């Protein structure tokens, strides 16, 4: 899942100036925005697989799960209320992303990140202290607003701050933070599930406040991007910021490209109507279908529900959580490879390699799932006789 928006950026030339420590540090801090999304993906599936959590908030699911041989294991987590708990975040993020794009343009990228982190923090506190399903849902909605703002503003910020020659690697920093958040959440779930008294799920949910504080505090000290400063009508401030992030006073060529791009963007009177014109159709199709098909592969579902999926396959509580940890480790390692490869081999190579790999894995996963489903059905039939 990713937020909308675009970066007004000049052509990818080799401008004067190097990769400064200032740029690396600002992009590193900004990438914290990915942690909040990754943490939520990793934490929610583990929490919903904990019996103590289900017993308190979703007792019907807990009863179905503990009543052996009554029905197929795949059906035991079917609950509209549980689905509302999990999906409310994404619905809120979808709505918030439209508002976030306006805020990001009008007030700057760092303000959008700060607001997203602060709202996410409130949602984490509500979830950790939840006494009923209503508090859980409200907390999830606030988490979704935070994710919507962060997912919209952070990739734009990274793209605008990064030098052209390492823009791919720094942009993937956002995805790297997501995968680290997922892995950290999986490890935390594995630990909190062992806490005596059945309140470990509170620790898991409340610890979402940590990445929220990181992005909130970090964004306070972040500078705004030259593009954003230009958009808001402060060319001299934008030039000084560009000098600072590039580490050189000779930024005339890059600055002029930014000015030209900003002015060209302002001259477009009806951007949403304009992009529907035939001459822009290839760009529209590519920009729409690539993220659409990436999401429809179901990877977010697998990462989100990993502990539950492993549990329905017959894994025990500890084994299902540890399997999710292993999945998270593989995810982090694959992202490290992408960071190294993005600028070295190009985006097209990664698209092709990733697409082929996903096709193979989807076939293998579906084959194993179908085999287990048939085996489980056969076992249920034999048990009933």
TrEMBL record:
Q: Does the keyword Transmembrane helix apply?
A: yes
Q: Ranges for the Major facilitator superfamily (MFS) profile domain? A: 26-385
**Which Pfam families does UniProt cross-reference here?**
Sugar_tr
Q: Where in the cell is it found?
A: Membrane
PROSITE patterns annotated for this entry?
MFS (PS50850), SUGAR_TRANSPORT_1 (PS00216), SUGAR_TRANSPORT_2 (PS00217)
According to the record, the segments passing through the membrane are 19-39, 81-99, 111-131, 137-158, 170-188, 200-222, 284-308, 320-342
Tell me what topology the record assigns in the membrane: Multi-pass membrane protein
Alphabetic keyword roster: Membrane, Sugar transport, Symport, Transmembrane, Transmembrane helix, Transport
| InterPro entries per the UniProt record, alphabetical | MFS_dom (IPR020846), MFS_STP/MST-like_plant (IPR044778), MFS_sugar_transport-like (IPR005828), MFS_trans_sf (IPR036259), STP/PLT_plant (IPR045262), Sugar/inositol_transpt (IPR003663), Sugar_transporter_CS (IPR005829)
- Does S-adenosyl-L-methionine show up as a keyword for this record? no
Matching entries from NCBIfam families are given as: SP
- Family (UniProt): Belongs to the major facilitator superfamily. Sugar transporter (TC 2.A.1.1) family.
Protein name (record)? Major facilitator superfamily (MFS) profile domain-containing protein
Q: Which organism is it from?
A: Hevea brasiliensis
